[in-house]
Specification:
The structure holds two protein chains of two kinds. By secondary structure, chain A is mainly beta. Chain A is built from seven helices and 44 strands. Chain A has a 17-stranded mixed β-sheet that branches. In chain A, strands 19, 22, 25, 26, 28, 30, 31, 32, 33, 35, 36, 37 and 40 form a 13-stranded mixed β-sheet that branches. In chain A, strand 25 and strand 26 form a beta hairpin. Chain A is globular and about 115 Å long. The N terminus and C terminus of chain A are likely disordered. Chain B is built from seven helices and no strands. The mean pLDDT of chain B is 91. Classes of the chains: A mainly beta, B mainly alpha. At the A-B interface, helix 4 and helix 5 of A face helix 2, helix 4, helix 5 and helix 7 of B.
Chain lengths: 726, 178
């Protein structure tokens, strides 16, 4: 039995201990949750990869200020290829949030490139690659940004508007670049080539270490599972993260390896970052100096806690240095848009895309001939002037233009893009790849008096939305030699099409097509591989109608005589299924020959049988699938695929290996040109080039065969569509 | 009686052409077999109506055409696509033989009509700069659909003329032969 005194005496002691624990906990929380000021910044400097730092400050991100993108405004828009009306966010490279530690004590003696003028004082700013890894974070709103920052263990306080003013050359970065011509690169020139790495989206179900495996079944290292291949001459490497389905407190760990001869890897170093959603990280270990060796990268998480069922998506964006030596290491990529779309609503924005950001973009070669007719309802019998601002992915500008309307009952505006702004394209391509995303045009338009037009319909001219030269899978070249990997090039040239029927209908079906030409190894029977893919989808429905007919015309400066082709379906499980007539249809052809002979003896030959012969003969002929080659002239051949009315193969893609006898014995590269593509009746004349290497005149050197990063983007195109319009 | 027959042939001509117009919207699926069966059935009735249509022919040509529609369900029936023209030809010859009381005359009627109609088609083709050849070459195409109604119209109308012409020639020859 305890006395009341002892009870009274015991309680205060426990209370003191509890109070001490609370104070300690508060101290720990206060220490962990660092106070930061958040400023809404208007900048006269476009922020891309080099981000603001304040010399002299020191916090968990070194001298860096965190950049958080928030939309400048949100307005109703239409995603043309899905006919969805959605709020479309428009970001701006000169408008963002800057996160500054509350106790920042800058060094005012340091040389500044710009000044950040805030309600709390002025900070000197320099631009460089980010301390602490994080390049930028993207948020949907200022509130969303504050939530993300809290999730990173910060205590953010919004402090109002600020200005970032460049010290010198205030116009730098804001000017339109000179239009570039999509010319073929010249021999011996060196390029920046952009590409991506792709990792599997990984669910987090436990704390501790969680591996993010590379996509594909094979690791770049024999002794390190799930590592991704980086290769030689990578000068910049950026990771992008997407977290869905929950939240988590974790670190992102990136380990960099050198691939040894034989395929084993040795550890070079690792970097650890605080994981945040929609965030890009710069991995400094992968640079020009380190990638003189062949590199691989391994990614994992160190999870402290999580809630919900978070899934983490990681992708990477790379810039390589490549030298164009032989005249056949590049191909082309063309993204097309065509068709008419009924809109019938007030919209301020149109999204055209997203197209796959095909790996291997050769810097300074992008172009676009985007052209569309916007039909609006007139007001008071007049057509106001329409101002159109072109942006890539709703982030980087490519010019603002004013168009006069023609009054023909309705107001008709013929809108075209004079040229693409190459730096904008580079920035957005590099950004998109970090998230496994694609490329879209976002057109922001309004009448010059500020009102929103009522758009009746939009017609896209059959023209390139994006086009660029792409590096076709050449890794490191040594003088006079070609890497072995080039012997297995993938998809050297690609044509992607989005189209709608030219007749506008209320709920348009949208066509998505793809044609690629891949040059093959010397000595192979099939010197070029054609891949043709197409399907109609109906927005809001899972129903897809697979390609029924395709025609591809190939021209080359040689004879196409004896050019031959076979055809296979590429099945959903990536197995091939040969295109052949159904058994009884084949038998029927044999019987038909006998019957035709009998009828011929009776005097009923060929078209004498009229409609009867036509209906049964053509009915039989068109029952099964076929791939045919037709010579149009000395230099041009047409490859035609037809899906039979009887067959119903569950595939929207065919692969057509081509035998081109005239390519044998060539001692210089041969240019193949896709002069015409008709996919399910939607025809384009893309002039798409691909180059086949000569049979002689260079030699090969052997490096470790690796997985192809070029190919992955296509395999994972569905993911690209999901992530690009966040 | 003759007037009735002519009307019947014209009626079937119209039916073939109207039916062929459905091709513009016909789905590219197993139902193409039904379209082909319909075309063969109506065309056969049209031709036979030129010499005399009995109910029996409707049944016979129905039986001839049905396997064409059913082939997608029972694949071996695709063999019938090869055999059907011969069987239709045989039935037509039988029908014509019945009308002229002679197998030879019946055979000559059918072959003569077909040849004359193809000569007319060739002339039209020449005059139109190869339009008919182009239509025939296109065949059954999932996206190019204009050719089938054109062929149906040109074929039946030329056959209408040719079978009437052959009938007149036969009547003339028979009269001359007493």
């Amino acid at each position: 039995m305890t006395s009341p005194k002892s009870e009274r005496g015991g309680f205060p002691a426990a209370r003191w201990v509890a109070a001490a624990l609370v104070v300690l906990a508060l101290f720990v929380v206060m220490a962990a949750a660092e106070r930061v000021y958040v400023y809404e910044v208007e900048s006269d400097v476009e922020i891309t990869e080099d981000v603001p730092h304040v010399p002299g400050i020191s916090w968990r991100f070194g001298e860096k200020l965190l950049v958080v993108w928030v939309p400048r405004d949100v307005a109703p828009g239409i995603i043309l290829f899905t006919n969805e009306t959605v709020p479309v966010r428009l970001y701006d490279r000169t408008y963002f949030l800057l996160v500054v530690p509350a106790d920042a004590r800058p060094s005012h003696r340091a040389e500044a490139e710009a000044f950040l003028k805030t309600p709390d004082g002025t900070y000197p700013v320099v631009f460089r690659k980010p301390d602490g890894g994080i390049i930028d974070i993207t948020a949907h709103s200022i509130e969303d940004a504050l939530t993300i920052l809290k999730g990173m263990g910060l205590q953010p306080e919004y402090r109002g508007k600020a200005e970032l003013i460049a010290k010198r050359d205030p116009d730098a970065g804001g000017e339109a670049a000179a239009p570039t011509l999509p010319r073929r690169p010249s021999i011996n020139s060196t390029f920046d080539v952009y590409g991506g790495l792709y990792f599997r989206e990984t669910p987090v179900t436990k704390t501790g270490l969680v591996v993010i495996p590379v996509r594909g079944a094979r690791s770049a290292c024999r002794n390190v599972p799930y590592a991704a291949y980086v290769g030689y001459d990578a000068k910049s490497f950026t990771l992008g993260t997407l977290i869905r389905g929950g939240t988590l407190d974790a670190d992102l760990i990136v380990k960099v390896y050198k691939i040894q001869f034989g395929g084993n890897c040795t550890f070079l170093g690792s970097e650890r970052f605080r994981l945040a959603n929609n965030t890009r990280y710069w991995v400094s270990l992968i640079n020009s100096t380190a990638s003189v060796d062949e590199l691989a990268v391994f990614v994992m998480l160190d999870v402290r806690s999580f809630s919900g069922q978070p899934r983490v998506g990681v992708n990477a964006s790379l810039i390589y240095t490549r030298t164009y030596r032989y005249g056949f290491e590049v191909g082309e990529f063309a993204a097309r848009a065509a068709g008419g779309f009924e809109v019938r609503r007030e919209v301020r924005r149109v999204v055209i895309g997203p197209y796959v950001a095909y790996d291997g973009y050769v810097a300074q070669t992008a172009s676009s001939s985007l052209a569309l007719r916007i039909v609006t309802q007139h007001e008071d019998g007049t057509c106001k002037n329409l101002q159109v601002r072109f942006t890539i992915n709703g982030r980087s500008p490519s010019g603002t233009y004013i168009y006069r309307g023609r009054h023909l009952g309705l107001c008709i505006y013929d809108v075209y893009l004079p040229n693409i702004w190459e730096p904008s394209f580079q920035t957005e391509y590099f950004y998109a790849k970090a998230f496994g995303g694609g490329l879209s045009w976002v057109l922001d338009f309004e009448y010059t008096d500020g009102s929103t037009p009522y758009v009746r319909s939009i017609f896209l001219r059959n023209a390139d939305a994006f086009r660029y030269w792409r590096w076709a899978e050449q890794w490191k070249t040594t003088p006079g030699a070609v890497d072995r990997i080039w012997m297995y090039p993938f998809l050297s040239s690609a044509f992607e099409l989005y189209a709608a029927p030219t007749e506008t209908i209320p709920a348009p079906g949208v066509y998505h097509g793809l044609v690629t030409v891949r040059a093959n190894i010397v000595g192979q029977m099939y010197r070029a591989m054609l891949l043709i893919s197409g399907r109609y989808t109906h927005p809001g429905s899972d129903r897809a109608v697979y390609m029924k007919k395709a025609e591809v015309d190939i021209a080359m400066p040689l004879s196409v005589q004896r050019l031959d082709a076979v055809g296979d379906y590429l099945m959903p499980d990536y197995q091939l299924s040969s295109i052949a007539l159904p058994g009884w249809v084949r038998e029927a052809f044999d019987v038909k020959r006998v019957v035709d002979f009998i009828l011929m003896l009776a005097g009923v030959v060929g078209r004498v049988a009229g409609l009867l012969g036509f209906a049964t003969g053509e009915g039989l002929k068109s029952a099964g699938d076929s791939v045919m080659v037709q010579t149009l002239d000395y230099y041009t051949a047409r490859i035609t695929y037809r899906r039979g009315w009887y067959t119903n193969v569950a595939s929207d893609t065919i692969i057509v290996p081509l035998i081109i006898p005239s390519l044998y014995g060539r001692d210089s590269p041969t240019e193949l040109e896709i002069t015409r593509i008709c996919l399910d009746g939607i025809c384009s004349t893309p002039g798409l080039k691909a180059y086949v290497q000569p049979s002689t005149g260079y030699w090969t050197t052997f490096v470790t065969p690796v997985k192809n990063w070029m190919f992955r983007a296509q395999v994972d195109s569905i993911i690209a569509y999901e992530t690009s319009m966040r | 009686m003759r007037g009735m027959m002519r009307d019947q042939t014209a009626f079937f001509l119209l039916l073939v052409v109207v039916f062929s117009l459905l091709w513009f919207v016909w789905p590219w699926s197993w139902l193409v077999g039904v379209f082909i069966a319909g075309l063969v059935f109506l065309w056969s009735l049209f031709f036979v109506s030129c010499v005399g249509l009995g109910r029996g022919f409707v049944v016979v040509f129905g039986l001839v055409a049905a396997p064409l529609a059913l082939a997608p369900l029972v694949e071996p029936l695709f063999l019938w696509y090869a055999v059907a023209p011969l069987s239709v030809f045989v039935v037509l010859v039988c029908a014509a033989s019945k009308a002229y009381d002679s197998l030879l005359w019946g055979f000559l009627f059918v072959v003569g009509s077909l040849w004359l109609h193809v000569i007319i088609l060739a002339a039209v083709d020449m005059l139109t700069g190869g339009l008919l050849s182009q239509a025939f070459d296109i065949g059954f195409d999932v996206y190019v659909r204009w050719n089938v109604p054109l062929i149906a119209f040109m074929d039946t109308s030329s056959l209408y003329i040719s079978c009437r012409a052959v009938k007149l020639i036969f009547a003339y020859v028979k009269r001359r032969r007493g």
